Target: Macrolide export ATP-binding/permease protein MacB
Amino acid sequence: MTAARNIARRELRNGFRDGLRGFRVFLACLTLGIAAIAAVGSVREAITEGLAREGATLLGGDASVEFTYRFADDAERAALASLGDVSEIVEFRSMVTVGEDRALTQIKAVDDVYPIYGDLILDPPGPLAATLQGDPPGAAMDPVLADRLGLQVGDMFTLGEKTFRLAARIESEPDNAGGGFDFGPRTLLFTDDLDGTGLIQPGTLYETEYRLRLPEGTDLDAAEARLDQALPDSGYRWRDSRNGAPGIAEFVERLSAFLVLVGLAGLAVGGIGVASAVRAHMVEKTATIATLKTVGAEARTLFTAFALQIGAITALAVVLGVALGAVLPLAFSPIIEDRLPVPAAISVYPLALVEAALYGTLAAALFTLWPLAKAQDIRAAALFREAGGMPAGLPRRGYLIATGVILVTLVAAAAVLSGIPTLTLYTAGGLLAAFLALLATAWATRKAARRLARMDAFKGHTALRTALGSVGGPSGEAAAVVLSLGLGLTVLAAVGQIDANLRAAIQRDLPEVAPAYFMVDIQPDQIDAIRALENDPQVEAVEAAPMLRGIITRINGQDAVEVGGDHWTLRGDRGVTYAEELDEDTKITAGEWWAADYDGPNQISFAAEEAAELGLKLGDTLTVNILGRDIEGEVTSFREVDFSTAGIGFVLAMNPSALEGAPHTWIATIYAEPEAEARILRDIAGDFPNITAIRVRDAIDQVSEILAGVAAAITYGASATLVTGAVVLIGAAAAGTKARTYEASILKTVGASRATILGSFALRWAILGLTSGLVAVFAGAAAGWGVSVFIMDTSFRFAPGSALAIIVGGVALTLVAGIAFAWGPLAARPAQILRARD
Model:
C-alpha cells in the first residue's frame, strides 16, 4: 500500500498540475449524472416536505369526511362535531349564464366557518361573509371564468334559476391543490344561497365534505377509529392532513421517480465516457506501467495505485455533482415553486444528495474496474515496443465477478430508492439490451467498413475510402461514439415515441368518436326532451342512461381494498347504472344478462377487464354503498366496456329492481356537428338550467395540456442524458486528435488535398452518427412500445417524424464534434509530425 500510495500521489500531483487533462471528460460525465439525480431528488424531497408541512391547509382541515351525493344527517353531524370544529363544503359542476353566453364552472358552496386553515385572497380584498352578503347574493369567481364571460365586479350572472352578483375575483384559495382534476374554473358562494337555484335535486351529482379542526395533539388514527365506530354504515370517505393532496403527491412522486431513472440512464451514458477516459489514460500510461514492472512492481500494486488515483478523481466528481445538484434547486426555486401546483420547501436535503452520491460512486466503480483490471496485464516488454492499446482478452475471473456484484448492487439500490422497482428493473434490462445492441452494432460497423474500404468499387474515392478505413480501424473510436451517442439518442427516441403516441391518442383517436357534449344532472322528467334532440338534422346520435354513484365497500364480505388493493375502481365513488335489456353494442364475455322482467336477488354485471384485474369471478358478491345505503349483489356476468371513446361506460350495472326507489339522475352524450354545438348548448341551458353540459373537446384539451407538461419534464430529463452523451462524444473526438494529426500528415505527404482530408473526417463521423441514430430509433421504438402498452395502457404506433429527427440529430451531433476537432490536424505540418514520430 505504501508504494501504491506514493505512485498514486505522484500521478495525482502531475495530473492536477496539467489541469486533469486526461480526466476532464471523466469529471464532466460523472458530475453531470450525479448533479441531475441530486437535483431531481432534492425537488422530490422539497415537494414531500411541502405537502407534509401544508397538509392541513391543502386539505382544508386536520381531517376531511366526504359523503357522496348527500348531506350528513343529524346523527352524522353530531358525530363529526364531537371530534372538533366542523366546516361544510358542497362541490358540483354547473353552468354560468350571462345573457347568451354560457360556461362550465366548478361550484364550491361554503359556510361562514370556511376556511378553517389558510387565507382566502379576494380582489377586492375583504372578509368572505361581508363580501358575499347582499341582495342579490354575491359570489366570487375565478378570474379566468370572469374574463371569459366578460364580467366585472358588480355585474350579474345566473346559476340555475337564480341571479347572483360578482362580488369579487378569487386570487388564491388555500385548499385548491387537493381536489384533483376540475373541468371548469371555480365559483365560490354560500351554501344557503343555493336555495332557489334548482341545482341541488334528488340524484344530482354533488359531494359534501365536512372539514374538521381537531384539538391540538389529537391522534388522527384514533379520531378516525372513533368516527368509524359511531358511523359504521355511513359510507363516508376519510382523509387527513398526512396526505392532504393524494393525487398530486402520487403524480409528483411517480414523475420524479421516472426522472431519476432517466438520470440513471444519463449516468450509464456518462459511464461510457468514464470507461473511455480511464482506458485512454491507462493506454497513455503504458510506458509508465511497463517501467514500473521492469523495476519489480507487482500487478496488484499498480492496480491499487491507479485505483486510488481514479478514486480520488471520483470523490472530486461526487463532491462537485452533489454540490451542483444541491445548488440548482435553490437557484431556480422561484421558477420551480411557480410551476408546481403544491407548496415545495426548497432546501438542501442530505438524503437526496447521499442517494445521488451512491449512484455516482457505484457507476464510477462499475465502469472503471474493467479498464483498470486490463491495464495491470500490460507487460514490461511494452516499454521496448511500439505497442499501443490495452491487452486483448477478458480481465481475470475475480474482476468479472466484482463487476457483476457492483452492477447488481447499483440496480438494487435504484429499485429500492426509486420506489418503483418493476419499472427500475425494466429500465435496467432495457439499458443493458441497448448497450449490447450498440456494442454489437459498433463491431458490425467496423467489420463492414473494413471490408468496404478494400472493395474495388471505392477506388478513386479517397475521402470515402479513408473514412471507411478509419471507422474499421483498431482505434476503438467507433465503439465509444456509437455507445455514448447511441444510448443518449435511445433515451430521447423512447421519450419522443411515448410523447407522440400520447398526443395521438388524445388528439387523433378520441376526436373521431368522441361526443360533442357529456350532460349530467338530467332529471327523469327531462330525459325525453334530451332524447328528442335526435330529431335535429345536425345531431348524429344521443345516448342516455340512468346513473347513480356508489362506493364498492366489500368483496365477498371482506373489505374491498384489502381484497382488490389500490385498484382505480376502488378509489372513491364509481358510476352505477341499471338496465332491463343489454345494449346491442355490448358484448357479454362470461355469464348471462338478467331477464327483462327479472325481480329476484340483486345481480351485477361488471366490466370484464377490470374484473380480471380485481380477481373477480362469477358468483362473487359485491357491496356498493349508494347514498349511505349498502346494496349487495351477485356478479352474474362480465361484459366489454370501452372507456376510450369518451362515451357512456359503466364499470358496474345492476338489474332495475335492485335500485328501485333510489333517487337518481340521467346522463347523456350528444354527438353533433361542430357548428351546431353552440346552439344546442344555448337551447338546453335555456330550457333546463339545472343540466350541466361538459364540452368533451375542452376536457380533451385540458388533458392534452397536462400531458404536454409531463412530456416536457421528461424530455428535459432525457435531454440531460443527451448532453452527457455529447460530452462523451466530444471526449472521443478530442482523444483521437493525435491519431488524426498523424493520419492527415501521411495523406498530405502522398498528395491529398485539405478538402479531401476534411471530407474524410466528416464522412467517418457521419457514418458513426447515422449508425447511432438508426440503432437508437429501433431501440427507442421498442422502449416506447413497452412503456405505452404495459405502463400507460395505450396503443402504440411508430412515429416516423420523431425517428427522423433522431437520425438527423445523431448525424449533426457527430459532424459538429468531429469537424470541431479537425482543424488542428489539418493545420499541422507533415514534416514536423513525421520527424517527431520517427
Residues 92 and 206 are 5 Å apart (CA to CA). The chain has four domains: 1-60+250-419, 63-213, 435-513+698-838, 539-672. The chain is about 55% helix and 15% strand.
